[in-house]
Write a structure and sequence with these properties.
The protein is an alpha/beta fold. The chain is built from 6 helices and 11 strands.
Amino acid sequence: MAQRFIVDRLWPDPAPGLDLDAAYADFSLPPARPDRPVVATNMVTTIDGRAQLAGTAEGLSRRADRRLMRLYRAAYDAVGSGVGTLRAADFYSRLPDDLAHRRVASGRTPQPLALVIGGTGPIPTDRRWFSGDQPRLVIVGKDAPHPDLPSGTELLEAPTPDPQPDWILERLAERGVHSLLLEGGPTTNSVFLVAGDLDELYWTLGARVLATEALQMIAPVRGGSPFAEHPREARLVSVHRSEDELFMRYRFE
C-alpha cells in the first residue's frame, strides 16, 4: 500500500488535511487536441528558481512530491525526457504496482510508454530506464550513432539532427499516444514551449535555496526568446501545499 501524504488545497476551493491521492483522484488532462497529443511538463525548483542540485533534480523536494510525480505519470500515455536528463540521473519512469493496477482497471496499459529524446550524441544504455517491462522508445537525430539498445526498446531516427517537437508528436500519435508528460530537462521544455506544443506545467516549489547558476526549469531560448517582449500567458489551475512545499498547476492559453 502506498504511503499516505497529507496536503492542503489552497486553490480553488480551499480545504485542509486532504490525502494526496484523494486530492488528485479527479485529476484530468487538458482538453484533447485534434492535431497532436496533449503535452505537459513536470518540474521541481528551489525558491530561487533552480531546477538542478549537483546536476540533477534529486534532493530538491520531499517524498510527497515523488508520489505526486507518479500520480501525474499514471494519467499520461507517454512519459518522456531529453537524453541530458538520462545522462545526469540513473532514473526510471515505471509506475508502482498500485498505479499500474489503477490504469488497467480504467482500460489502459499498466505502464505508459517511456520516451527519451536524443540528438546526435551518445545514449547511455546502462541506465535503469532500460530495464523492466515498460515499453520504451528512443528518438535520435539524423545520422546519430545508433546505439545497441537493450531488448524491448524501439529506436526511431528523426529527419533532422535535433528531433523537432511537431515531428515527435506526429510519430507518437501514429502509435496511439494521445498525451505526453515531459520531465525535463530545461532545454527540452524550452524547445516544446517555443514550438507551441506545451499545454500545461506542473511546478513543485521546494523549500530550499541554492544561490547557484544551476539551470532553471525552462532554459533560455537559443537565438533569443519570442516571449521576451510578449510573455507567454498561463492560467493558474490549482495549488496544493505539503508542509513547506507548493504543488502548482498552470495551463497555457
